[in-house]
């Protein structure tokens, strides 16, 4: 019924369901154990005293054993780039890429994070060229956009941008970091490798978002 205990039971079920979904991709043993507990608590044929005992065990496990087993989300201010800036830019695809980049970084997948950073950089550069109505300068003979190295070469000389000194300095560093993670056969990025790119990523991306008319 609609009472305090019914509401607490509903909250417990929601917490258990979310934890179960998170654990499903990680530990088969934990998933099986949680599934048994959930069945014991919410089964229609269970005895009241057994359900009470099972609910206590489930609540205890959710607050202890499985508390740190579920992946934590990436807050807007964490990771390599603040998602609040991308929200201000009002482009869903930019926010999606930023979340993936930050998520990879927070999960310790540093090569993946650097590759997503490279993709992120390519997109904001193209957005800036399109906004300035000079996108033709970064297209090949077939009308396709050129690769990142050529994008950067054109961008640093583009008079309508007048890029800052720091932006010009960090552009090749970001490119090289992404290239090494994407193509370096024996290279595996470490946290320090990506951390060195963090400031440059913030400076370069925000500057090109400004030129793209998104900030």
Lay out the secondary structure:
Blueprint: H1 4-23, H2 28-42, H3 48-63, H4 83-89, H5 92-106, H6 110-131, H7 148-155, H8 165-183, H9 191-211
Description of the molecule:
The protein is mainly α and 215 residues long. The chain has two domains: 4-63; 83-211, Up-down Bundle (Four Helix Bundle (Hemerythrin (Met), subunit A)), CATH 1.20.120. The chain has nine helices and no strands. It has helices at 4-23, 28-42, 48-63, 83-89, 92-106, 110-131, 148-155, 165-183, 191-211. Helix 8 (165-183) crosses helix 9 (191-211). This is DUF4145 domain-containing protein.
In short:
The chain is mainly alpha-helical and 215 residues long. The chain has helices spanning 4-23, 28-42, 48-63, 83-89, 92-106, 110-131, 148-155, 165-183, 191-211. Helix 1 (4-23) runs antiparallel to helix 2 (28-42) and helix 8 (165-183) packs across helix 9.
Helix content: 55-70%
pLDDT under 50 segments (min length 5)? 23-31, 69-77
Number of strands: 0
The residue-averaged pLDDT reads: 78
CATH class of the largest domain: Mainly Alpha
End-to-end Cα distance, whole Å, is: 51 Å
User: Which value, in Å, is the CA radius of gyration?
Assistant: 24 Å
Order of helices and strands: HHHHHHHHH
CATH superfamily annotation of the largest domain: Nucleotidyltransferases  domain 2
- Largest β sheet strand count, sense and barrel closure: none
Which word captures the global form? elongated
How many structural domains are formed by the residues?
2
The secondary structure category is: mainly alpha
Q: List the total number of helices.
A: 9
Q: Examine the coordinates and then state which fold CATH places here, giving the name of the CATH topology of the largest domain.
A: Four Helix Bundle (Hemerythrin (Met), subunit A)
DSSP strand content: under 5%
CATH architecture verdict of the largest domain: Up-down Bundle
């Amino acid at each position: 019924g609609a009472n305090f205990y019914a509401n607490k039971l509903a909250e417990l079920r929601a917490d258990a369901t979310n934890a179960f979904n998170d654990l499903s991709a990680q530990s088969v043993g934990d998933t099986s154990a949680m599934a048994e507990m959930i069945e014991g608590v919410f089964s229609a044929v269970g005895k009241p005293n057994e359900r009470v005992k099972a609910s206590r065990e489930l609540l205890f496990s959710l607050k202890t054993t499985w508390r740190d087993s579920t992946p934590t989300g990436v807050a807007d201010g964490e990771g390599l780039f603040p998602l609040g800036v991308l929200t201000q830019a009002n482009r869903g695809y930019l926010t999606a890429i930023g979340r993936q980049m930050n998520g990879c970084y927070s999960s310790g997948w540093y090569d993946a994070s650097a590759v997503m950073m490279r993709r992120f950089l390519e997109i904001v550069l193209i957005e800036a060229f399109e906004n300035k109505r000079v996108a033709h300068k970064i297209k090949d003979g077939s009308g396709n956009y050129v690769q990142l190295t050529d994008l950067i070469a054109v961008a640093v000389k583009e008079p309508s941008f007048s890029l800052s000194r720091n932006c010009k300095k960090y552009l090749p560093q970001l490119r090289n970091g992404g290239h090494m993670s994407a193509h370096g056969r024996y290279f595996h990025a470490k946290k320090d490798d990506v951390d060195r790119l963090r400031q440059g990523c913030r400076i370069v991306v925000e500057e090109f978002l400004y030129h793209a008319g998104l900030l």
